[in-house]
Write a structure and sequence with these properties.
single chain; 214 residues; alpha/beta; four-stranded parallel β-sheet
Length: 214
């Protein structure tokens, strides 16, 4: 089981990566193609969501293929069986879109770095007792200004907003206090996935990476 120091290392790697690609693919082949395109564009953290068919196989493949170059995690975990499967597949961090105590407990028991979804101040207070990072979701509802407001009463909580993150507002999210951002449709559009347009995915990835560097 990973130690606290190892969890801190993973969080530091995610901070350094800045952009976590939230991958929702229609199938495992499209997911693998997208992963390759994202890495070619400079992305160094990928969250394979459990809305992707055969997500565990994709997680295992990505870990074997990219090794230490990419921090691979599992997202959209909504039951304990998914948590156990993701851990067995080698996911280095675990993400749930909401706060289910049973799911959060299984995530915490795994020893992996965990992120639990929350939006309201009450949810944030509950999430910080159950996870290492609070996933602000959906971030599009309040935007960076809302995150900045939350940072007032919760200055020590690591926040990772997902939803509503674009290349143009990425820096604003970071300035508001995000330790990293989760980028989904703006980074890997559903149309590009369906068409296998990996060049577009690589170009978008490079744009996000450049924005993070600025």
């Amino acid at each position: 089981m990973p130690t606290t120091a190892e969890k801190s290392t993973i969080l530091a790697e995610l901070r350094a990566a800045t952009v976590i690609a939230v991958l929702r693919a229609p199938g495992p082949d499209e997911a693998r193609g997208a992963c390759q395109a994202l890495v070619e564009g400079g992305i160094r953290a990928i969250e394979v969501t459990y809305t992707t068919p055969d997500a565990a196989a994709v997680i295992r493949w990505a870990g074997d293929t990219f090794g230490d170059r990419v921090v691979v995690g599992a997202g959209t975990l909504t039951d304990t069986d998914q948590v156990r499967e993701a851990v067995a597949a080698g996911a280095r961090y675990l993400v749930s879109p909401g706060l289910d105590p049973e799911v959060a407990g299984a995530m915490a028991d795994s020893g992996r770095l965990t992120m639990v979804g929350a939006l309201t101040p009450s949810e944030v207070m509950a999430a910080r007792r159950l996870s290492d990072v609070v996933k602000l979701f959906p971030g599009s509802l309040g935007g960076p200004a809302y995150l900045k407001a939350l940072r007032g009463p919760f200055p020590d909580i690591p926040f990772m907003p997902t939803g509503g993150v674009s290349r143009d507002n990425l820096q604003t999210w970071l300035d508001a206090g995000a330790v990293a951002v989760g980028a989904g449709g703006e980074l890997v559009p559903a149309a590009a996935l369906a068409a296998g347009d990996w060049r577009q995915v690589t170009e978008r990835a490079a744009g996000f990476v450049a924005a993070a560097a600025r």
